Amino acid sequence: MQRYFVADEQWSTETVMLKGEQAHHIVRVMRMSPGDVIICIDEGGQAAYSRLAHVHPDEVTCQVEEWLDADTELAINITVAQGDLKADKYEWVVQKATEMGAVTITNFPADHSVVKWDERKSAKRQARFAKIAREAAGQSERLHIPAIERKESLASLTEEASTYNHLWIISEQSAREGNHYALADALGSVKAAENILLIFGPEGGFSEREHLACTRAGFVPVSLGPRILRAETAPVATLAMLVYHVELKR
To answer: Is 42 exposed, middle or buried (0-12, 13-18, 19+ CB in 10 A)?
Structure first.
């Protein structure tokens, strides 16, 4: 069943109105008609079965029929901070991190980043990343869309360290040193409702300067095993382990 995130101002007690791109998708892409049912989600993460009443390519009005009580969000709040990657790789990270349950996804310029961020295109890029997150949240049946942010430096992330319960730097240096048990220890300390900040390096990995800055700020170096993963693979592997630890293991 199709799911749509709808701004609060488009809701009333018994109806919800979808406009613009969402209305176009319902009418032109999905070819729905009055009587069809979709799921609409408000900004607070409340979802409702909604039956199409008035259908127009520019505006669709639905009747709210039943509020749902399912909760598909992770019990922990994960922020993924990724050193700048090539656009297609970072888009993949945004999509998969959203599917895995991250609440915030941000990128930052790193010493070894291959690409350089063009501030003139920043707004357009952020809008595209937000659209990818929105679509991935709908596909994975989430109730919230991750916040898409941009940090001006690694230092701006380390300055926020005190707002998190857990700080991890996913480190190829730790992997090369054979410190593979750090992840198990770090996972064992994570509890429900806590906040965790995960920092991942770019294609070229972290510099010594960045690694030292993070450890001095209290980040725990975490290895994902003896094999060095690609920059875009590491976030997905880490999130999968966190999902298992929080939701799936008994």
So the answer is: middle
